[in-house]
Amino acid sequence: MTTEELSAKERLVAVSAALLRRHGYHGVGLNDILAAAKVPKGSLYHHFPGGKSDLAMAAADAAGKEMVRIIDDSFQTAGSVEDGITTICHKIAKLFDIFDRADGCPVTSVLFDAPENTEFREKAKQIFDTWIGTTRDYVVEMGMDPDRATDLAEHLLVLLEGAWIMARARQSSDMIRSIPARLFR
What we know:
The structure is a single chain. It contains ten helices and no strands. By secondary structure, the chain is mainly α. It is elongated, with a radius of gyration of 17 Å.
């Protein structure tokens, strides 16, 4: 489905996510978003009464849900914890390659560019906790002790965030693909 085939609300979220990933919260104006989404200002405030702040939250939520979908897809067919995590890393590396390689993490670049905004920090915490919890639950289902599974899920998130930064610096997704080898040595 192309951006033009999406509803006005979906276009606003998709375009906001892309622009915010690239330029950060303070680097994107509402006029930039409206022009790229090809929607009138009234449509923006109809769907997102809080304006850019609401859009940023919606963009981060969409990225969070996409990551949960990736985790679900990766573990549902995995034969082991290592297989599931390897699949996650390869899917995230593919996303990095699809995005412009200068783009930041779809959550941190959207929500951490406004550090004074406690609502943004809380949303980021909620999203990350969901990713960790979802991963932990699959790992526990596969037989790992819950405390160890939580440590592994948190470690994976830390590695993914750091690897994304390194991938941006090197302009290569290889660092993201290397996570399983580093995690399971």
